[in-house]
Every structure is written in structure tokens, then in C-alpha cells.
Amino acid sequence: MPFNLPKLQYNYNSLEPYIDAKTMEIHYSKHHFGYTNKLNNAIIGTEFEHKSIEEILKTPNLPEGIKNNGGGYYNHCLFWEILSPDSNQLSADFKALVEKKFGSFSAMQKEFSAAASTRFGSGWAWLCVKNNQLSICSTANQDSPLMDGQCGGQPILGLDVWEHAYYLNYQNRRPDYITEFWNIVNWAAVESKYQSALK
Ligand code: MN3
């Protein structure tokens, strides 16, 4: 199979109390596993079979099954990477970049959290690198900023705001889930993605 479910770098219960073990288990072993299998099934024998996931997502007019499952595969791979049970801080250099773009770290958090809380229905909030600048946006469903006609840019931080990501622990309180998310961001991973995204 072209795409594999990536191994989590922490245990299901490692992100508690912010994300509970049951949510992590279902989210990873059912939802992400499902997107991975459906993506593989959808691309077998097609022109997409030997392309990278980013090449696939950037292709205009993707068939619906490849778009939804490819986005689901890619978005969750990124999501697991930018979470960590070990609280860590932004480096001084990256913090300075955030402050230069948004005014302050808390102003960036506020804009990102607003993108996450105002996304109607299922979707994602993103911090991206667009034209070498930090940029915040959101997408519906499993759409990626990389896709044709979406907000654009290379995602470096993402938050899943589908109900399956928080409902067991937070029920309808999406704003609480968004607030607690900041406790488990892996800033080293975000910064590494930032460096890779610079052109
Ligand atoms: Mn999800």
C-alpha cells in the first residue's frame, strides 16, 4: 500500500487531561486508519498511485474520494506531529517571527482560535506559511490549504475541529477544547515545519 498510518510518538493517554485516551484511540485507530485505507483503495491503479501525498492534494479537480480521504490522511499525519505531552516553548527566533506578524503571541493564538471556533460544522484551523509569511485560515471537512481553491500556503500547525476530535470529553464545548489545545502544542515540530516550508 502506498500510504501507511504513521506511528504515534506518544501513548493514547499521554495528552490527558487535554485530549482523553478514548478519543485518541478512536481518532487514530478508526478515523485516521479509515482515511488511510480508503485513500489507498482509491488511488490503486490510478495516476496518483506513485505520487507523494502533497502532490496528490495539489492536483486540481481531484475525484471526491481522493480529495476527502487524501485530506484526511494528510491532515491527521500533521495533527499527531504537532501535538506533544511534553510542554515546550517557542524558540526565541520563532517567537520573534510570530510577534512581528501578529503583534504578540497571544494575538496569534486569538486569531487562530477564532478561525477554529467560527469554522461552521466540521473542519480545521491552520497556521500556514504563505509566500514566506505566517498566515492563519480554516478549511471545511478534510480540505487542506494545499488544495486548489483553498486558502493556500503550507500548513505547519493545525487543529481538528470535527466533533470526533473532542466530543467525548468536551461535548458541545468546542471553545474549551480549543483553549486546552495550546497546552499540548509541539512547538519544536511546528518550527521545523516552518523551516521546511520557507522557499
Ligand atoms: Mn479527525
Give your account of this protein's structure.
The protein contains eight helices and three strands; from the N terminus they run αααααβββααα. It is mainly alpha-helical and 199 residues long. A hairpin with a 2-residue loop joins strand 1 and strand 2. The structure holds manganese (III) ion (MN3). Manganese (III) ion binds next to helix 1. The site of manganese (III) ion has 7 residues, from helix 1.
Could you provide a short overview of the structure?
By secondary structure, the protein is mainly α. Helix content is 47%, strand content 12%. It contains eight helices and three strands.
Q: What is this structure's SSE topology?
A:
Elements (H helix, E strand, L loop, with lengths): L20 H23 L9 H5 L6 H18 L10 H11 L2 H14 L4 E8 L2 E8 L13 E7 L6 H4 L3 H8 L5 H11 L2
Antiparallel strand pairs: 1-2, 1-3
Helix pairs in contact: 1-3
Bound molecules: manganese (III) ion.
List keywords for this structure.
199 residues; mainly alpha; 3-stranded antiparallel sheet; 8 helices; 3 strands; 47% helix; binds manganese (III) ion
